[in-house]
Amino acid sequence: MIKVNIFNDTARKRLPRKCITEVTENVLHSNKIVDAALNIIYVDDDTILDINSKFLKHNFVTDVITFDLEAKDKLLAEIYISVDTAERQAKDYSVSLKSELKRLAIHGALHLVGYNDGTADEKVEMTKMENKFLGFDNV
Fold it and tell me: Which residue range is the domain that position 52 belongs to?
């Protein structure tokens, strides 16, 4: 069974939950993950900067950070999404905040199933997969 919990650790009210749960479950199911506990936590830029600095030794804000907590018998993970950064990116890309949050949740879930974005080729493949799970063909 896949269990997705969504937590809002921001001052912002009414952030999407159901569609975020659905897209992340879809990524996991499509990659043969049948047993998982996933927490998605909406945070602000200050919090994601702190997480990035403390755990990844990066002193910058990012849009999403994924942690695979490496449980033995099932996938246990956390995805942190900066709503502040997502809002800026949504404006830059001329999409809704909901759409950008879905993309970031998908991006985090793709990392959990083995996709990376460290090279140009990996970034192209990651974007292709994000678009697939967003319901775009080859955008």
Answer: 2-134
